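[agent] plan:
  1. take the single chain provided in the ticket
  2. run structure prediction with default settings
  3. attach C-alpha cells to the ticket
  4. add a short note for the reviewer (M.T.)
[agent] executing step 1
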Amino acid sequence: MSIVSDNQETSKLFDRFKWFVVLVLVALVVWGNFYFAEPNAIYQVGTVIRVIVVVIISILALLLAMTTLKGRNFINFAKESRVEMRKVVWPTRKETVQTTLLIAVITIVVGLCLWGVDTFFLWGITKLTVLGH
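[agent] step 2 finished; step 3 output follows
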C-alpha cells in the first residue's frame, strides 16, 4: 500500500470515529434532557440549566461533525449556494403581482372550461342513459 492510501484509510477511520462521537453526544443530550426532567431523578436540574447544557453539547456535536469530510463538503456546498443565491435576479414587486394575477386568471378560465366540458358530458350521459327519462 502507498502512503496516500494509508493516509486515506486513516482519515476515513478517524471520520467514522468522529461520527460515532457525534452520535453518542446526541444520544447523551436526548437521554440527559429526559432523565433530568423527571421529578424522581436523583439530581433535580432546572430547565434553564438543562437548556444551556443541551445547547452547548449540541454545538460541540455540530462542530465535531463539521470537521469530518462530509461536514467540510456541506460547508463548501453552503458557501457555493450562497454565491449562487447572490447571482439570482429577483423579480420586482410589479412583476410578481402581474404574474400572480395572470396565474389566477388562467386558473379561473381553465376551471370554467373544465366545468363546461364536465357539464356537457353530464348532459350527454343523462340523455343517453336511464337517468334522462
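[agent] step 4 note for reviewer: The chain has four helices and no strands.
[agent] ticket updated
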